[in-house]
Design goal:
Elements: H1 2-35, H2 46-52, H3 61-86, H4 92-123, H5 127-130, H6 136-146
């Protein structure tokens, strides 16, 4: 039983890694679009990414991995725990309720990482942070606590 729940969590973590790596450029674009004015949106085109280099599209990948991998693993672990407690033959409303509850609990645990990820992506263009790349995570956390 315990071995099965660990396997579910590891499978969830692996899917989190793959999805994060594949979709990070779109997530970065979404974050930039949400934080910039309409006049600055044209700077987010593929031409802009090519000028900065291809690695720019994966800015914030480590922060996304810190958020997504434990979040998905925890979600699947909690969901499987709920399903083993309530039974695997669930009605649709019960399954939806258990899924939503699992996601809410997992999200509550990884919310700080979501904040770090967003701040990291937004402040990547800020000169005072990019000049200290080795301390970037510490600077992002400091800026969060300062706000």
């Amino acid at each position: 039983k315990q071995w099965y729940q660990r396997r579910v969590a590891v499978g969830g973590a692996c899917s989190g890694v793959v999805c994060t790596v594949v979709f990070q450029p779109l997530d970065l674009l979404k974050t930039k679009l949400q934080t910039q004015s309409l006049l600055q949106i044209r700077d987010l085109s593929l031409k802009h990414v090519k000028l900065k280099n291809v690695q720019y599209a994966w800015t914030g990948l480590s922060a996304s991995l810190w958020r997504t991998v434990p979040g998905v693993a925890l979600y699947f672990y909690i969901l499987d725990g709920f399903r083993s407690y309530f039974g695997y033959n669930l009605t649709t409303p019960t399954a939806l309720m258990l899924g939503a509850s699992s996601r809410t609990i997992a999200s509550a645990f990884v919310q700080p990482f979501s904040l770090v990820k967003t701040r990291f992506e937004v402040s990547q263009s800020s000169s005072h942070l990019t000049s200290h790349k080795s301390n970037l995570a510490i600077l992002v956390l400091f800026s969060i606590t300062k706000d």
